[in-house]
Amino acid sequence: MSENNEIMIDVISRVLNVEAETITDEMSPQNMPFWNSFNGISIVSELEKEFSVHFSIEEVYVVTSVKEIREALNRHNVSFE
Question: pTM above the 0.85 mark?
Answer without folding.
Answer: yes
